[in-house]
Predict the structure.
Amino acid sequence: MEQSETTYRGHVTRNSILASLAWTLCLGASLAWNAYQQRSGVLEFARIQAQANINKDIAFRRWATEHGGVYVRASGKWPPDQYLKHPERDVVTPSGTQLTLINPAYMMRQVMEGYSEQYGVKGHITGLRPINPHNAPDAWERKVLESFALGVTEAAETSKIDGKPHLRVMLPMYLEGGCLQCHEEGGRLEGVQGGVSVSVPLAPFTAAAAHELRIALLSHGGIWLIGLGGIAFVSRRARVRGDERERARLEISALNASLERRVSERTADLERANRELEAFSYTVSHDLRAPLRAINGFAHLLIEGEGERLSEEGKRMFGRIVYNSNRLGDLIDDVLEYSRAGRVALVRTRVDLGRLARTVADELAETYPQAAIEIAALPEVEGDETMLHQVFSNLVGNALKFSVNAPQPRVDVGEIAQEGRRVFFVRDNGVGFDMNYAGKLFGMFQRIHSEAQYPGTGVGLAIVHRLLERHGGQVWAESAPNRGATFFFTLGAAAGPP
Ligand code: HEC
């Protein structure tokens, strides 16, 4: 009892721990997925920004190329480009202003170096054979430039610039018509003059992502707590239900135990009362026999010696006395027989039922010469031979007694198989009886027919019932008035298989 309760409680606890773990894992996985999405979102946004910047740069460069460069006022900060080989690099306007031709690369470098604070994005133009050594590629740019020659059209990497994380994106620059004014075609990179790279600081994107992540963390935490609360609630209820069930089980088993105790007490009481009753009836019957024998004996002596002196009426009354004391003797004998049937030890041996039935038939045939007794093949069984002799004797005797008035009295003894058990029967074609009285058949002193018609004490079937009961068997009857009667009986499992 204790055991099963702890097992059930342990079961509930284990399940709720498992459920909590699974729930935590689920939300952890969801959070990780969120974080991953945020992170790849950061890079994606940075890449888009980088591309937009590069495209704008390229547009400016194209514009400048289209105009074959642009003339600006020469200044100390940005002197004329020493790398630009052009016959009209420096010109003077009619009013005397000094102008210098600015090529696209120089223009962009000026923009980026001068205004990159505002830009936020650092750009760099580079080539494998730079006209301006200042434009020489770094290690990463060199690798990317070489890959552009093989057809790659974009490259990206994350790196630290001044200790801060940046996304670097690089696109190739192709030589088109206008470029050729100042750049020669051919060389190491077919069609690709070089590339532009920009570096986008990741900080603003990471900050936005971190904010998103904080929100996700909060909402996940809330959902996680609600889930854990639910699991705790359910497991608490399960535990309470388990306790209730356990209590009910204990109550029921306590009730059962007390019921069993009471039943066995009552049974013992009943058995004791039965034994006392049996002993009492045995003693009474036994002790009655001696005085009865004396009455009978003296009655005989009296009728033999003094019979002549009695009047006719006196003789008749004396006859009644003798008859009744004989009958009392029969009753006492039967009661003692019944009592014996319950007391004598059962001695099991192999009994040939067929032979037994024939012996009984032969014994009774003398009393009922006109009756036909048919005995079918019967098996050998395990049982008490004396008791079974008595059973056949009573059943066949009854059958003969109640069929004595039939035109052709006939008694059959045989065997049938019913629901897998061996059932023996004794059938007659006598007066039979109303099945409404079937319940009375096997009781003590129970009679269905009047004694004047069919003499007897009404104990024979009670004895049969008792003897078969002691074999673990049963007895029952089927009949209808004037249609004969059939008595069936079994010998119980100990009698052997059917
Ligand atoms: C007006 C002349 C001129 C035109 C037009 C021109 N460039 Fe340049 N380019 C230069 C000069 C001069 C430099 C080196 C200048 C510097 O950075 O000071 C240069 C630099 C470059 C560089 C950097 C590597 C290096 O050699 O220093 C690349 C790449 C480049 N140009 C590509 C192009 C492409 C592509 C076009 C056509 C869309 C083009 N340029 C149009 C004059 C020109």
